[in-house]
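Supplementary Methods. Inverse-folding protocol.

Structures were first reduced to a C-alpha cell string of length 336. This string, shown here, constituted the complete conditioning input.
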C-alpha cells in the first residue's frame, strides 16, 4: 500500500513537470504564432534585446497578451476547482457564484453612465463580481448564524445571476451604444486589452491563489460531507468562507481582465480529476498549470484558423475543451 502510494505520488509529480513543459510550449507558441509568425529564435532575441524593429514590437505586444492568458487561465481553472469542491457540484464554475453576471452588470452600468472605455472595464467588472459573490454567500447563509450549504449556494447563485442578467438585457436593449460595447467584452478575448491590465488584476489573483493554498485539506474533508468533516475537526463554515473568497477573487480578476470566458473553469478541473482523483493537493496545482494551457492554446488556434483575422478566445475554448471534457466524463471518473 505504501509503495503504491509512493509510486502514484511519483507519477503525479512527473505529470506536474510535463504540465509545466506544456505550459512553456503554449506560452512560446502564443508569442510566436499570429498573423505574422515569428521564429522562436527571433522571439528569444527580441525578448532579451528589445529594439525598434517590427519584430520586436510584435513580440512585445504578444508577450503582454501571453502574460494575461497565463494569469486568467490559472485563475479561472483554480476558481472552478475550488467552487466544485465547495458546492460538491460537478457543474460548478465561476458563474455559479454570480461572478460572471455581477461583472457583466457592473460593466454595463458603468458604460451606460460614463460611456465606453477599454481601460475602464477592469475597474468596473471587479467590484460588480465581488458584490454579486458576497450577495450570493449572504443569501445562502440565511442570516448571521446561518450556514451556506452547497444547495443554498447553487440556488442563490442562480437567482442572483438571473436577476442581474435581466438587468443587463434591459439596459443593453434600451441603449444600443451600450450593447455595441458590451457584446465584444462579453464574448471574452485576450486581444485589445490595456497594457496595464495585468498589473491591475495581479494583486487579486495572487491573494486568491494564496488563499487556495490553504484549502486542499478542507476541500478533501468537505467531499465526505459536513458531518464527517466536522468529526475530523474541520470548521466547515470557515473553509467555505475562505474558499468563496479565493474563488471570488480569482474569478473576478479573470473576468475583469478578459471577459467571462466560459468552459475553462468547468472543463479543466474535470479533465484533471480524471487522472488525479479528487485529492485537491494535486488537483489545484494541475489546474493552475493546465488552465493557461487551454486558454493560450485556444487563443493560438483562434489566430491560425481565421488568419489574418482571429476568433475570440471565448468562442474557441468551448470547441477545444469540449472533446477533453467528454473523454473525461466517459471514463467515469470526472464527476465528484
Amino acid at each position: 500500500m505504501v509503495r503504491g502510494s509512493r509510486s502514484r505520488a511519483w507519477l503525479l509529480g512527473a505529470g506536474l513537470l510535463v504540465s509545466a513543459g506544456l505550459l512553456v510550449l503554449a506560452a512560446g507558441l502564443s508569442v510566436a504564432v499570429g498573423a505574422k509568425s515569428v521564429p522562436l529564435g527571433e522571439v528569444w532575441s527580441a525578448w532579451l534585446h528589445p529594439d525598434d524593429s517590427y519584430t520586436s514590437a510584435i513580440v512585445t505586444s504578444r508577450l503582454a497578451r501571453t502574460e494575461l492568458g497565463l494569469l486568467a487561465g490559472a485563475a479561472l481553472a483554480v476558481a472552478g476547482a475550488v467552487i466544485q469542491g465547495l458546492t460538491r457540484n460537478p457543474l460548478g464554475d465561476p458563474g455559479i457564484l454570480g461572478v460572471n453576471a455581477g461583472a457583466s452588470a457592473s460593466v454595463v452600468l458603468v458604460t451606460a453612465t460614463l460611456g465606453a472605455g477599454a481601460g475602464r472595464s477592469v475597474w468596473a467588472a471587479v467590484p460588480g463580481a465581488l458584490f454579486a459573490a458576497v450577495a450570493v454567500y449572504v443569501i445562502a447563509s440565511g442570516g448571521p448564524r446561518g450556514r451556506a450549504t452547497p444547495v443554498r449556494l447553487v440556488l442563490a447563485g442562480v437567482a442572483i445571476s438571473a436577476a442581474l442578467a435581466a438587468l443587463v438585457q434591459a439596459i443593453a436593449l434600451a441603449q444600443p451604444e451600450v450593447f455595441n460595447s458590451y457584446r465584444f467584452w462579453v464574448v471574452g478575448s485576450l486581444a485589445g486589452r490595456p497594457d496595464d491590465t495585468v498589473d491591475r488584476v495581479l494583486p487579486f489573483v495572487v491573494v486568491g491563489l494564496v488563499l487556495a493554498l490553504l484549502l486542499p485539506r478542507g476541500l478533501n474533508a468537505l467531499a465526505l460531507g459536513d458531518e464527517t468533516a466536522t468529526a475530523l475537526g474541520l470548521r466547515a463554515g470557515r473553509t467555505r468562507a475562505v474558499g468563496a473568497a479565493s474563488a471570488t477573487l480569482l474569478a473576478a480578476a479573470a473576468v475583469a481582465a478578459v471577459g467571462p470566458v466560459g468552459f475553462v473553469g468547468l472543463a479543466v478541473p474535470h479533465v484533471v480529476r480524471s487522472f488525479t482523483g479528487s485529492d485537491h493537493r494535486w488537483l489545484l496545482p494541475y489546474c493552475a498549470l493546465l488552465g493557461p494551457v487551454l486558454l493560450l492554446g485556444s487563443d493560438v488556434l483562434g489566430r491560425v484558423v481565421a488568419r489574418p483575422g482571429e476568433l475570440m478566445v471565448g468562442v474557441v475554448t468551448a470547441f477545444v475543451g469540449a472533446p477533453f471534457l467528454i473523454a473525461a466524463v466517459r471514463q467515469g471518473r470526472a464527476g465528484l
